Amino acid sequence: MRAQFVLSEIGVGLRRNLTMTFAVIVSVALSLALFGGALLMREQVSTMKDFWYDKVNVSIFLCNKSDAATTPKCAKGAVTGQQKEQIKSDLEKMDGLVEKVHYESAEDAYTHYKEQYGDTPIAATITPDQMQESYRVKLKDPEKYKVVATAFAGRDGVQSVQDQRSILQNLFDLMNGMNVAALGVMGLMLIIALMLIINTVRVSAFSRRRETGIMRLVGASSFYIQMPFIMEAAFAGLLGGAVACILLLVGRYFLIDHGLALAEKMQLVNFIGWDAVFAKLPLVLVIGLLMPAMAAFVALRKYLKV
Question: Judging by beta carbons within 10 Å of its beta carbon (0-12, 13-18, 19+), is residue 70 exposed, middle or buried?
Fold first, then answer.
């Protein structure tokens, strides 16, 4: 097969169908950018889970005097020294599940509260005896929170058992929902891109039906005739993949490096690095190359009989 002929035919096809080729490039770029963005968002959620789940604790809050009048679980009064020792002993027995146990007294809780909310009006009305003693439990496997909750919830002297992970779960659920929405839009854009590719190939083949007819009469194989059309679609898809890669790089640069990472409230978020973005670019380019080529191949064999 002469490479010069194939390249010249590709150039002819691209010039004749410039507007449709441009539409293919744009639709492929947008669909692959959404695909890459969805992959990166899923990795970001996984990274954040690993980062935060490793730091969150299970908190066992103990009853104080004021809880006795307001909380049914503390109807027997404030936690006793014996009950605290029993809770600590039982936690230490869970050495296969519990990594670390930290006791926080009411005075410590009051100090931490003043550090965080000392400027608020309600802080002036809070006294140390109103604060709850607690055990901060770090688990070896945060997913096994329910084991601790079942063992200590409802026990005498225990006001509540809270898993800090549940506070973050709503955020992760929201991000997963956005990820699903991005994949849905990506699927729609992908269908549009495939329809444009098929129509572009059909129009290109129809406009060159005389040349392909002559080539068949002189004995050219179907593969030889089809190759320029397939390469046209692959070239347009590759350009779309390259644009998608640029969009991903620009999005990472402005959205994270010069956006979220600079926000004061996002300083503790562990964002994905550039290595995660670069790792997705080859996949985007390969899909951008192969998807239009396969669509063109199927269109030529099924619809055009070239």
Answer: exposed
Residue 186 has pLDDT above 60, yes or no: yes
Six-digit token string for 77: 């009064």
Q: Does residue 199 contact residue 20 with C-beta atoms inside 8 Å?
A: yes
Identity at 302, one-letter amino acid code? K
* Strands across the sheet containing 158-163: 98-104, 134-139, 58-62, 158-163
- Give the position of tokens 């006294």: 127
Least confident of 90-94, 155-159, 205-209, 262-266: 262-266
What does 172-198 look like in DSSP terms, one character per residue? Answer: HHHHHHHHHHHHHHHHHHHHHHHHHHH
Structure tokens at 138: 């770090």
Cut 0.70: pTM above it = no
